[in-house]
Amino acid sequence: MPDTSKIRILIADDHSIILSGIRMILSYKLKVNNIFECSNLKTLIPQIRDNKPTHLILDVSFPEGSSLNVLD
């Protein structure tokens, strides 16, 4: 198993079940400990800035619009 101590993952999705499921898989199966969550577009950029993720799991469609527009 590779060293996962330096991996920092931000999961951005507006569905709590998806957030929980992905977090559970990453935590228990892959042993990733630095996992952050974002459930709306308003907090996406601040979460990226504050947590400096190495990986981003991003839902494209949020009720507020497309996450791709925020990242542009």
Produce a short descriptive summary:
The protein has 72 residues and is an alpha/beta fold. It has three helices and five strands, in the order E-H-E-H-E-E-E-H. The strands form two sheets. Strands 2-1-3 form a three-stranded parallel sheet, with helices on both faces.
Can you give a write-up of this model?
This protein is α/β, with parallel strands linked by helices. The protein has one domain: Response regulator (Rossmann fold). It has helices spanning 16-29, 44-51, 67-71, and strands at residues 8-12, 34-38, 55-58, 61-62, 65-66. Strands 2-1-3 form a three-stranded parallel beta sheet, sandwiched between helices. Strands 4-5 form a two-stranded antiparallel sheet. The model has no long low-confidence stretch (mean pLDDT 92).
Strand and helix layout:
Layout (H helix, E strand, L loop, with lengths): L7 E5 L3 H14 L4 E5 L5 H8 L3 E4 L2 E2 L2 E2 H5 L1
Parallel strand pairs: 1-2, 1-3
Antiparallel strand pairs: 4-5
Shape: globular
Lateral strand order in the biggest sheet: 2-1-3
**CATH topology, which one?**
Rossmann fold
Rg from Cα: 12 Å
Structural class: alpha/beta
> Order of SSEs, N→C?
EHEHEEEH
Detail the poorly predicted runs.
none
CATH superfamily: Response regulator
Largest sheet: 3 strands, parallel
Task: Return the domain count.
Answer: 1
Give the strand tally. 5
Oligomer: single chain
CATH architecture: 3-Layer(aba) Sandwich
What distance lies between the first and last C-alpha atoms, to the nearest angstrom? 35 Å
